[in-house]
């Protein structure tokens, strides 16, 4: 039986409980409205995979300490800030099934809340001299912003090839998981070589994670999620890129025309999904996802066996076997 997240968390169960309280404390403000909103954000927490990556990599590389907790909080604060801002940009009213901050308190307050979370993260590092962690996470935020902008730019032209796709997901998604793993290693005093290895490990995991997410858009595994969202948003993902690359000129032109001009039409989206499935796009994407997964596991072989390493391997498996 495959381990679930609760089983994977066993070696760091105490740290995760402690982290939740510390994270709440790090978000506290004297402004009542701000406190009210940050409490709302904390209650909507997801699977908490990011702090899990931080604590498990820290455990693999050394002794979990206060710096590890601050590193995990820094990532959560900066990432939460980007999500709050993303919802404003996307005019999204929901996140993880709950109302978004901008839906409840309007855009102006949502932007200010995002700014506050960003500043709390920066001050947490500066006040404690965690400049090594701040550098790692700041680089990740820069890459995430660049990845989003690159994807938006390319969506207008629909000219994303496989190489550009990998660069987009490396920046948009993999850079964050890479920073979690690098922060975990750096927080326990690992040398630069091991911090770099853990960063590379996290990047491979992030690449596999995003390809898995892209497969969900074609109705793979996840039940109840609307399919074709990426197609509606004119996002070129790996299954579609592969299918278009192997199509004849006429078919390619027809599919691109559907995406460009009829992405809101359910029948047109269904045609694109059918085209991708028949072209072997899903199989190709799964193959590439498994390659990144294997590359991540190969990097872990350089580290000594421990309960942290076992859980970290299980967490990697979970990212590509999850159903949502």
From TrEMBL:
State if GTP-binding is listed as a keyword. no
BP terms from Gene Ontology: isoprenoid biosynthetic process
Q: Name one GO molecular function term.
A: metal ion binding
List cofactor names only: Mg(2+)
Any Pfam family matching the protein: polyprenyl_synt
**Signal peptide as annotated in the record:** none
Q: Which SUPFAM superfamilies match?
A: Terpenoid synthases
Q: Which domain of life is it from?
A: Bacteria
Record's keyword terms, sorted: Magnesium, Metal-binding, Transferase
UniProt lists the family membership as follows: Belongs to the FPP/GGPP synthase family.
Q: What is this protein called?
A: Polyprenyl synthetase family protein
From which source organism is this entry? Algoriphagus formosus
């Amino acid at each position: 039986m495959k381990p679930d997240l609760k089983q994977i968390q066993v070696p760091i169960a105490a740290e995760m409980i402690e982290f939740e309280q510390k994270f709440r404390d790090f978000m506290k403000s004297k402004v009542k409205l701000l406190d009210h909103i940050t409490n709302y954000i904390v209650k909507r927490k997801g699977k908490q995979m990011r702090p899990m990556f931080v604590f498990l990599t820290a455990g693999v590389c050394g002794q979990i300490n206060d710096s590890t907790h601050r590193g995990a909080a820094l990532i959560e604060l900066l990432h939460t800030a980007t999500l709050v801002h993303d919802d404003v940009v996307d005019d999204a009213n929901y996140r993880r099934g709950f109302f978004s901050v901008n839906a409840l308190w309007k855009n102006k307050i949502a932007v200010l809340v995002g700014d506050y979370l960003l500043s709390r993260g920066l001050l947490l590092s500066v006040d404690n001299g965690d400049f090594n962690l701040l550098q790692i996470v700041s680089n990740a935020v820069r890459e995430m912003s660049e990845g989003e902008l690159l994807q938006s730019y390319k969506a207008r032209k629909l000219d994303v090839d496989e190489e550009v796709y990998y660069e987009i997901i490396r920046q948009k998604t993999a850079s964050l998981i890479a920073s979690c793993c690098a922060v975990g290693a750096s927080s326990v005093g690992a040398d630069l070589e091991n911090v770099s290895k853990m960063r590379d490990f996290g990047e491979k995991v992030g690449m596999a994670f995003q390809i898995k997410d892209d497969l969900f858009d074609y109705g793979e595994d996840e039940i109840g999620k609307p399919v074709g969202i990426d197609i509606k948003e004119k996002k070129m993902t790996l299954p579609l890129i592969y299918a278009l690359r192997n199509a004849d000129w006429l078919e390619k032109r027809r599919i691109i025309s559907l995406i460009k001009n009829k992405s809101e039409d359910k029948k047109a989206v269904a045609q694109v999904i059918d085209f991708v499935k028949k072209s072997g796009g899903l199989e190709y994407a799964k193959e590439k996802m498994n390659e990144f997964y294997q590359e991540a596991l190969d990097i872990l072989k350089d580290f000594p066996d421990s309960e942290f390493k076992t859980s970290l391997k299980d967490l990697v498996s979970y990212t590509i076997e999850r159903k949502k």
